[in-house]
Structures are given as C-alpha cells and as structure tokens.
Amino acid sequence: MSTSVIVPAAGSGTRLGENRPKAFVDLSGATILSRTLAAVQSSDVGLDRIVVVVPEELIEQTRAELTGSRCAVDVVAGGAERSDSVRAGLARATGEFVLVHDAARPFTPAAVFERVVEALRAGHQAVVPGLPVVDTLKRVDDEEQVLETVDRSVLRAIQTPQGFHADALARAYADAGDVATDDAGLAERAGIAVHVVAGDPDAFKITTPWDLRLARAIAKGWD
Ligand code: CTP
Ligand code: MG
Q1: How far is Cα 7 from Cα 113, in angstroms, rounded to an integer?
Q2: Pocket test residue of 5, 14, 22 for ligand 1, highest count of atoms within 8 A of CB
Q3: Residue 203 contacts residue 105 (beta carbons within 8 Å)
Q4: Stretch 152-180: mean pLDDT, rounded?
Q5: How many angstroms separate the Cα of 174 from the Cα of each of 64, 71, 91, 165, 189?
Q6: Atom from ligand 1 closest to the CA of residue 11
Q7: What's the average model confidence in pLDDT over 32-37?
Q8: Is 104 in the pocket of ligand 1 (CB under 6 A)?
Q9: Does the pLDDT value for residue 166 go beyond 90?
Q10: Which ligand lies nearest to the CA atom of residue 206 in the structure?
C-alpha cells in the first residue's frame, strides 16, 4: 500500500518559549525537525512521500536541508492552527494511507510507525498510538477543588503518528468545523472509528522547557 506522511512543523512553540519556531530549535547539533525526519525515514513502512509543513519564511531553508531523502519530499506553508497546517499538507498527500506525525516528537521509534501501518493494513480506518495513563487523575472545579478521581484504566494518552485511510482523513477534514488537538479527534467527530495501538514513551512530544532539557539529554546520549 502506498503511504504518505504529513509532518506538521509550522507551530510557533509558545509553551517552549525559545526564540524560533519549535521544530527549528537545536537538539545537540541537529534541529528537532531534522531528527524527526530521520526517524520517519528509518521506519520500514514503505513511505512514498513526506510532506513537511513549515512557517512560510522557512520553506526555502527546509527544502535546502532535505536533499538526499529516500522518497519524494514536499515542503509547504502551514497555517494559524495545527489543523490548518495538516490541511495544507493533506492537499499534497498521495496514496492509500496517510500518516500525520508531529515534528515535535523526534525520538519516535520505527516500531510505532510500523504498528500504526499494520493496523491500517488490517482494515482500521483510523489508528492512533496510545499509552496507559500512569498518574492519578482528578477532575477539579474553577477553584482547584477536587470533584472526583477519574478511572484511569479506561484512558489513554495519545501520541503520533496517527494513521488514516486517505479517504477517511479527507472526510474528517472536510467536516472539520472547529479546531481539535489531534487529527483523530476530527475523525471521531466525522463518525469514523478510531483504533488504538501501543505507543512508546520515546514518542513524547517536546512541549515545555522541561521536555527540551530531557530531549537534549537523550540526544547527547544517542550521538
Ligand atoms: N503545528 C503546525 N501548525 C500550527 C501549530 C502546530 O504545524 N499552526 C505543529 C507543531 O509544529 C508541532 C505539532 O503541530 O510539530 C504539535 O503542536 P504543538 O506541540 O502544540 O506545537 P506548537 O503549536 O508549536 O506549540 P505551542 O502550542 O506551545 O505554541
Ligand atoms: Mg500548539
């Protein structure tokens, strides 16, 4: 089955608070984006095309850094919300399966990509990697008063890559009226069943300064 991956990398990284878009922050000698793209290409899922979505002013720089990839690479401009960026990438995606993978998850193991694609091949229309939640979860009110402890055994923390049969993702985005924090959220709203496969702690997303410290420590150890 031919497969594309869209890599949204056009976010500003407000919570990280560095002086550049998050995907272009250095991780021990290589940007977060370039490490993510290397991880994407090391997976054995037969990728035909990678569509990287970046801030408009970084398109040329990104193209220049992407020479020598094993498959076709497109670089396109993103939008204000993550869903706008994914939609821009979707316009260039080709093939039966489309994966969407955050640029901000540079250490995602190849096995996670492989599990997602395997479940797509098995017939699931939408597939997400997820992890059991380890912390105790409590619902609170406006004043931080605990209302209840939530049953975590039925909850999963969802990561990327999220995989879709191409027509299912197109339908999810065609129906998308408002913003969701992930692509599967839009699929759910469009009535598409979403299946969870095992994620991996290494697929964590760099969101906060603490995450960046962790990522830099990992990158040093890995080089
Ligand atoms: N993203 C994007 N376009 C946007 C917003 C986000 O392509 N308009 C991408 C980010 O670059 C990132 C992924 O979506 O790879 C996950 O988003 P998030 O972690 O929220 O990144 P940012 O939006 O950059 O961070 P923040 O929300 O802290 O500003
Ligand atoms: Mg964001």
Answers
A1: 13
A2: 22
A3: yes
A4: 91
A5: 32, 28, 12, 14, 11
A6: 24
A7: 96
A8: yes
A9: yes
A10: 1
How many folded domains does the chain comprise?
A: 1
143 by Cβ neighbours in 10 Å (0-12 / 13-18 / 19+) ranks as exposed
15 lines ligand 1 (CB under 6 A): yes
pTM for this model (two decimals): 0.96
Residues spanned by the domain of 125: 3-222
Using the predicted structure, report yes or no on whether residue 70 has a pLDDT greater than 90.
no
* CATH code of the domain containing 97: 3.90.550.10
Ligand nearest to the CA of 83: 1
Residue with CA nearest ligand 1 atom 10:
11
Give dist(CA 221, CA 223) in Å, integer: 6
208 lines ligand 1 (CB under 6 A): no
